[in-house]
Specification:
- One of its GO terms (cellular component) is cytoplasm.
- InterPro entries: Class_I_gatase-like, DJ-1/PfpI, Prot/Nucl_acid_deglycase.
- Residues 28-218 form the DJ-1/PfpI domain.
- Keywords: Glutamine amidotransferase, Lyase, Stress response.
- The protein is of the alpha/beta class.
- It has a single domain (4-222), classed as Class I glutamine amidotransferase (GATase) domain (Rossmann fold, 3-Layer(aba) Sandwich).
- It has helices at residues 26-38, 64-71, 73-78, 103-106, 111-122, 159-163, 174-180, 210-222; strands spanning 4-9, 14-15, 20-21, 24-25, 42-47, 55-56, 82-83, 94-97, 126-130, 153-154, 184-185, 195-198, 201-204.
- The strands form 4 sheets. A 7-stranded mixed beta sheet has the order 7-5-1-8-9-13-12. A two-stranded antiparallel ribbon has the order 2-3. It has a two-stranded parallel ribbon with strand order 4-6.
- The mean pLDDT is 98.
């Protein structure tokens, strides 16, 4: 049996005091989808509300994997995302949370999502997230009361990248928040590919890191 991956996307479509339009950043879902698909995995989608997620960065549609996602089964299936509470997440060997600014809206304080992530990790499955997606790992507490990210090597969108991207739109700094909960944060050069695996937690810094996150998740699942 090939592994099964559940991609959990945000439902948000605006952020900040000026209602900046946002969603899931296209390559951060399309590139991992392409890697999981090439590996022959079953890929399903869920959101917290069960509503269709929004996509951001459609201007990048000329990238081959992005275009294949938009015109193939990827986007068609993402539009039919299940409501997370209706999904038996125990069936999945891995969960993956793509970024875009959207997760900064509805994945900071999300009790059901936090429980899903904690349960997934504690039963021995793989947890992956990229760019702003690791905000989903914030406030995730394990059964011993510790934060999931405490003592783990983690990457996410960095303070320096946010300063040059969406600082006025976000309510807090993701790198600082992860570090405050004990993450050992790894920041590479701005916008460079940077993905890191620590046990069964795989994270990436930015859109360029999405492919690497999926590759590392696959390596763990195939080991």
């Amino acid at each position: 049996m090939k592994p099964k991956v559940l991609i959990i996307a945000s439902n948000a479509n605006s952020i900040g005091p000026n209602n900046r339009r946002t969603g899931t950043f296209l390559p951060e879902v399309a590139h991992p989808y392409a890697e999981f698909n090439r590996a022959g995995y079953q890929i399903d989608f869920a959101t917290q509300s069960g509503d269709t997620p929004y996509l951001d960065a459609l201007f990048l549609a000329n990238d081959p994997d992005n275009l294949a996602f938009l015109t193939g089964e990827g986007w068609a299936n993402m539009q039919k995302a299940a409501k997370l509470s209706n999904v038996d997440v125990n069936q999945y060997d891995a969960i993956f949370i793509p970024g875009g600014l959207a997760p900064m809206v509805d994945m900071v304080e999300a009790p059901e999502l936090k429980k899903v992530i904690a349960d997934t990790y504690e039963r021995g499955a793989v947890v992956g997230a990229v760019c702003h997606g690791p905000v989903s790992l914030l406030n995730v507490k394990l059964s011993d009361g510790s934060y999931l990210v405490n003592g783990k090597n983690i990457a996410s969108f960095t303070t320096a990248e946010e300063d040059n991207y969406a600082r006025p739109d976000v309510s807090f700094d993701l790198q600082s928040a992860l570090t405050a909960q004990g993450a050992i944060f790894h920041a590479a050069e701005l916008w460079s590919a940077n993905s890191i695996a620590d046990g069964r937690v795989v994270t990436g810094q930015n859109p360029a890191s999405a492919k690497g996150v999926a590759e590392k998740m696959i390596a763990i699942l195939e080991a």
